[in-house]
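We treat protein structure as text, and this decision shapes the records that our systems exchange. We quote a single record here, exactly as it is kept in our systems:
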Amino acid sequence: MEMWASNCGPDEQNYPKGEVMMGNSSQANLEICEPAIPVASIDTSGWSLREGTLTRPHYRPSHERNGNLLQVGVIGYGYWGPNIVRNFHMQEFSRVAMVCDSRSDALSRASRAYPETEMVDDYTAMLRSPHIDVIAIVTPVWTHFELAKAALENGKHVFLEKPFTSTSAQALELIELAERRHLKLMVDHTFLFTGAVRTIKRLLDEQALGHLYYYDTMRVNLGLFQHDVNVVWDLAPHDLAIMDYLLGIPGEALIATGQKHVNGVEDIAFLTIFYPGHLIAHVNVNWLSPVKVRSTLLGGDKKMVIWNDLESDEKVRVYDRGVDLKTREGVYDLLVSYRSGDMWAPHVDNTEALGLEIAHFTRCVLENQPMINDGFAGLRIVKVLEAATKSLANHGAEVRI
């Protein structure tokens, strides 16, 4: 039997981790059970995700389900697992019916917090249960494919921690399996639901920044070092998912450079991603920074935005600054003038992002609606990570995405 630990959350801090017992093979030891009770359709009016704003309606589920609630099983109760359990438990139309972790102390903590929830140390109990509708997988990336495939084969909707899978081939297989089984598959890109990202999305949709020139982001801190993935696979998925959502277009190629200093994997890396229309993006990720930095800068021909996620107030600032280029008749040289206008800080909603994300997931399952962070969104990120891995191995060679 192998042991594995629950994965980190959206800000990648790996505190004491939970563990779960895992079988020796992905298929032979898994009993394929009957699908879960089908999700009944409900009134779909009122929900919207427009211009970065998530609006929740009041709706009533069918009374033909498991006690009117989505029954959720959570695999992994380490650092991020408790947040997943709490938010699924707080939703109006879901409850956590089962938690899986092989460590007795983790299950004891979960049992004290949720005494009515069943605790198990073998995840196949969730697969066999006809009452579990959703399985949330909060584990390291190398376990994702096996666990998600088993859940889908047993008729369970899947909520999966980032990054989606270890390879794009695995991601495609899970997407195709979910579509064949008419099941929902969501990748946990929590930052898409933060007030800051939704505010920036609204500004971009309104063309407030004009034509984008660049996207520059930094996510650095001291540690925590991973043994199974490098800093790109650990930290960059957050920013790559945000960029994918905000920009709405895929990158064409990238260059990745980095270096190994401590434990045999890259602990500092720089990604440069090339987009159509002369848009360029830069991602800096680092486990060796003396301070924690979470900053993003977007520059357009009209306005510029700075997002500092560590600010308690004014996380997003919009600057009416830039350059204007003009030519005069008979003058061949460009005349450059610098524009320095006002700065303003739009209101940023501080509702917990994970709660909004799980509300979105629950609504999409119950109403059979598309998700903004579905398997295809996860696949796009994995493709970028694969390209970055190839470029790193070739000392910064350009790789097509």
